[in-house]
Structure formats: C-alpha cells, structure tokens
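fyi for ur records
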Amino acid sequence: MPKRTMGQPILPLTVPPWTAGPMSYSLLVPGELAHCLRTWRDRLSPTDLGLPDNGSRRAPGLRREEVAVHTGISVNYLTRLEQGRAQAPSASVITALARTLRLNPTEAAHLHSLTGHADATTRVAARHITPSIQRILDRFDDVPVIVIDPAWTIVQANPMAKAMLARDLVGENAAQSQFLGPRWVERDPQEADRFEREIAGDLHLQLARHPDDPALTALIAQLQAHSDRFATLWADPPATGASSSRKTFRHPTLGEITVDCDHLEVVSSDLRIVLWSAPSGSPDHNALQLLSVVGAQDFSSATASYDSRGP
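which gave:
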C-alpha cells in the first residue's frame, strides 16, 4: 500500500547521487544479471534444447552444464555469472546466452543492457514529440490516444483521451499516481496487481535502456523510498514490457466503455503511444463516436473510474 495519503502533494523528482555519470545498469540493481540468468534457465526444460528428459531431476529447469555446452562457455564461467561474480561478459557470449535461453526480443535486449552492451546514444531517453507522432495524434481523432515517456509520464494526449479520462493528464505520471496516489482511476484488486507489476517490470526494462536518464532514475528512487509495494515488486526481476489488455472505463456521462488498450513502440523515439479502440460497429465503438461529440465539453470536475473485464 502507498505510504502517502490521498491528496498529499507528490514529492519533487530529485536526481539521486548514485546516478551521476555513466554506469552499468547492473550496478543500479545489484544482482539482477545473476537473478535473470537463473530465472531464465529454470523455466526451460531439456526438450527445449533437444535433450532427453529422463524425469529424474531434483530441481526444475536446465542444468548449468547443459546451458554452458550449448552456449560455448565453461561451466565455471556460467557459475560466476549466475553468482554475480563476473559482471563483464562479451557481446558474443551474451548473444549466445540469449539464444540458448530462448529469450524473446525484449528479454534479449534487456540482457544486453544489463551487461553494458546497450547503444550508448540511448542512455538518456529522447522525449521530443516528432512530426510523425503528432501526425498520429492528429489522424486518430476518433479514438483516445496518449503518448508516454519511459518514466510513464504523459507527454501528449489527443482530445478524445482527455474526454475519456474526464480531465487533462498531460504532464502527470502514471507510476506516481498508482503507487503514491492520488489515483486517477479505480481498479479492482486483480487488475491493480497486474498493472503495478507491469509498471515495475517496464521500469526495469527502461532503466536498462536509459541508465543515465535523470527523470527515470529519480522516479525509481522516489518510488522505492515511498512505496513499500513498489519496493517489493522492484526487487523481483526479470523485466517485462507493457502489454495489451482489455479495459472498461466508466465515463461520467456515457457510462461504461470497454476498449482494447495497445502500447505501440515508436521507431527513432523513446516515447510510446497508448491507443484505446473498440471493434467497428460494436456498442463501445458507438460510444467512442459519441464521445468525440461530447468531448468538446469540460469534464475537468468529473472523475472517470476504471474496471478490468479481462483479456
């Protein structure tokens, strides 16, 4: 539960002293490389590598010997990596490990970032609204669209999004709202748990990509210091990215509107586009069309609440 009471001013973001100057992400999150390697190894079975499964294993997952052989490294070196005693593996070793551990693109990118092989130009996130992003906001005038940065701050929103949320949230931060309050929307316990895990996992991923970003590191330090819930989730990597989901908003004028929520990555930018849509011809699509009409009205004094209906 958040330590801060509802309505209490959000603490200013200050850059913690340990973010000064370039550093490896693994130094910001001690033990994450070791934790991730063990987690990814434990989730695989021998058959994933084409090995026989005789069912006599005392622990789940692959043995270190099996991973080491398929990766082309020694068992001793893999042991040192998993114990956090070898912090600088080469890019070729990391690529081989990602292949052996059957990592998806998000996980593989995170592994490269953890070991210091991320592109140096991305260490600080780019938050500029490019002309292409602005064109998307302008073209999608029939569905709610917001743009968030790696720290989950809303940097832009179209009129439909402001109407859906019954307020203008540009400049506010979704992670702060969820973990520190006041919350923009109400969620049932299951959806709140999923959303909080998604935020914490994604912030792990974003910090690996942008370890020198002042706003991102300050946000994480703030949440760790003032939210027990976030601190617990932060200590439980590996990272996961934001996912698509199905959500139901309760609009103060139009009632319930159920939409598909999709996070879209933007090429050549560190911003993400979040789009809410409904199947053409559905009651929810009709409600969105009506929302585009009433959206010109001022809903700044109303509160939109939210409920998850599952995927």
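The chain has two domains: 25-122, 131-308. thats all i got for now
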